Automatic annotation (TrEMBL):
InterPro entries: DUF6691. It comes from the Bacteria. The chain crosses the membrane at residues 41-61, 82-106, 112-130. Keywords: Membrane, Transmembrane, Transmembrane helix. It holds the Pfam family DUF6691. It comes from Loktanella fryxellensis. This is Sulphur transport domain-containing protein.
Length: 144
């Protein structure tokens, strides 16, 4: 049941991304082109997502536990540190250059366009690189 729910949630998300046009990198890049062919529709999509998330979290977090997990896994740190700023900058720069974020690129894989596969491959490589750097920099713990 858990995997069916995950599939349906992903299907709804991907459909929303596709219907809103956010899987089209040209539409996303036009949002960033404020001095040229600016398209404000991305702001409305994001605003709608923020409103739905805000309301949804109010309902969900009133529950004693998630429907399909033992506990909520919420961030505990509120620190704005170099990792957060660096990751945000890399995400934003990549989004501005490619016109894709991971949420928009995954549904766009269905287009079979090579740039989408290159972006997803580069995203996966970046994730693996970041994990490797984090693992190399973290203090080693002794195992008994």
């Amino acid at each position: 049941m858990k995997y069916l729910s995950l599939y349906l949630i992903g299907l709804i998300f991907g459909t929303g991304i596709s219907v809103s046009g956010m899987a089209n990198p040209a539409k996303v890049l036009n949002f960033f082109d404020v001095a040229g062919t600016w398209d404000p529709s991305l702001a409305f999509v994001m605003g709608g997502a923020v409103i739905v998330t805000f309301i949804g979290y109010r309902f969900v977090l009133r529950r004693p536990m998630p429907a399909m997990a033992d506990a909520f896994h919420l961030p505990t740190s509120r620190a704005i540190d170099a990792r957060l700023l660096g990751g945000s900058a890399v995400f934003g720069i990549g989004w501005g250059i490619a016109g894709f974020c991971p949420g928009g690129a995954l549904p766009a894989l269905g287009t079979l366009d090579a740039p989408v596969f290159i972006f997803v491959g580069a995203s996966i490589a970046g994730i693996l690189l970041a994990r490797g750097i984090t693992a190399a920099r973290s203090p080693r713990t002794a195992t008994a």
